[in-house]
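To: structure desk
From: M.T.
Subject: fold request, one chain
Message: Could you run this one when you get a chance? Sequence is below, nothing fancy, just the single chain.
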Amino acid sequence: MNREKIIKENLPETRQDDNERRAYTDLIKKYSKQLFDFGYRFCPDEDIVKDCIQQLYLDLWNRRFDISESSTIKSYLFKAIRNRVLREKSKWFKDELLDDDYGFVLEFAIDSKLITDTANLELAEKVRKAIQTLPARQREIIYLKFFEDLDIQQISSIMNINKQSAHNLLQKAYSSLRADWSVLLLLFATTLQLYRS
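Reply: Done. Structure tokens follow.
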């Protein structure tokens, strides 16, 4: 066997490879839970979502030199997992049509330990119900804007719509919530007055 080949095979990894692996590991640790939560909102099958995330990370590692740096990694990952989960969901659940009215579940936990005041618990429940009345795409844009703190450019990229459509969709969601909010604000003001007295 060639002595030079044996030496190269037994040398430790280069620093660049170590840095890439460390960055990749950090990326997985940072985004895996967020990607699972987001993917699960489209498909409530944990195994499908986990498989999609695993395949996404594998593709990301294999194509790490081809990814454009113009978009942020978070919006890239969210767009990729959204598309992958919707594609896989359509393979497994052939009865469901894949159209603009896909399911998007936006639930947030109302932890009674954190909200001890029953009036606040009732208000939180009413907010949850108001959000659940929104159509799936409006719930998705509310989630991306307020729960994931993404800007309109990133949201439009993730949702595969242009920037103006994202603005319009967000405004529709605001308008729908505003109608419910008038009742919620009145309830909140009344509750606040009762709490102070």
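Reply (cont.): The chain is about 70% helix and 0% strand. Let me know if you need anything else for the meeting.
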